[in-house]
Design brief:
The protein has helices spanning 2-23, 45-58, 152-239, and strands at residues 38-41, 62-67, 72-80, 87-100, 103-126, 130-148. With 240 residues, the chain is α+β, with helices and mostly antiparallel strands. Helix 2 (45-58) packs across helix 3.
């Protein structure tokens, strides 16, 4: 069993090495282009980055690295093979957000690694020939496939969920701005009312002051007229 696994691992590495050596020069050929792997979304980079974190986390991805400044997010997820329990798949994805004014470019790249997990027993042999009793267990993992994910459904599914999350976040932001604008307008209206009341009070005080001053002038005038009248009356009495 050990010999079989060693041969399988060696063969896998050889095949993988040959494939890499033969195909890496074609990495930028048109046929290597992944369709639907990028999309322009009407939102700020911050909103999209938060939405990408939310979407991947909800889908069971582990967050490997987060770079908010560079707006690069790497995540991974392990998936069991329902048809073959000895196989498992690991998806590794990189999400990059490029700002562009009112819109942002979102790019998704992903690869998948398939591993085979073998369980074998170490047997006690009778006379070193006939295995009779298992005395130990060995586990061996071999990479059987490694490639870029090319299925369009993988990318369209991600962007569908990303757009849904971004739409919800944009609505919340819009509602928040609307609420803030209303609060600002209310505060401004209250300040204007206060200023108007202060002006009205100042105007009222000025009016009261003007009336009081006019009354004082009238009283002074009347006092002056009475004094003149008294003098005239006194002169008349002297003459008579």
């Amino acid at each position: 069993m050990k010999t079989y696994l060693i041969i399988l691992a060696a063969t896998s590495l050889l095949v993988s090495g040959c494939a890499t050596k033969g195909n890496f020069q074609q990495a930028f050929d048109d046929k290597e282009t992944i369709n639907n792997s990028n999309q322009v979304i009407a939102a700020t980079p911050e909103v999209i980055f938060d939405a990408a974190l939310e979407v991947t986390s909800k889908q069971g991805f582990n967050v490997d690295t987060v770079d908010p400044k560079g707006r690069v997010l790497t995540v991974s997820k392990e998936i069991k093979n329902d048809e073959d329990k000895e196989l498992s798949h690991t998806i590794k994805s990189t999400i990059t957000v490029v700002p562009g004014g009112d819109e942002s470019l979102v790019m998704l790249s992903a690869n998948q690694v398939t591993e085979m997990h073998k369980k074998s027993y170490v047997w006690w042999h009778l006379l070193w020939v006939l295995p009779l009793i298992p005395i130990d267990t060995e586990y061996t993992t071999v990479v059987t496939d490694r490639d870029t994910i090319r299925e369009t459904e993988f990318y369209t599914s991600f962007f569908s969920k990303l757009n849904q999350s971004v739409t919800v976040k944009n609505k919340k932001i819009a509602l928040g701005r609307e609420k803030a604008d209303k609060e600002v307008a209310l505060i401004k209206a209250q300040e204007e009312e206060i200023q108007a009341a202060i002006k009205a009070k100042e105007a009222g005080l000025e009016l009261e002051h003007a009336i009081a001053e006019q009354q004082q002038q009238q009283a002074a005038f009347e006092a002056e007229q009475e004094a003149k009248a008294a003098k005239k009356a006194k002169r008349r009495s002297r003459k008579s």
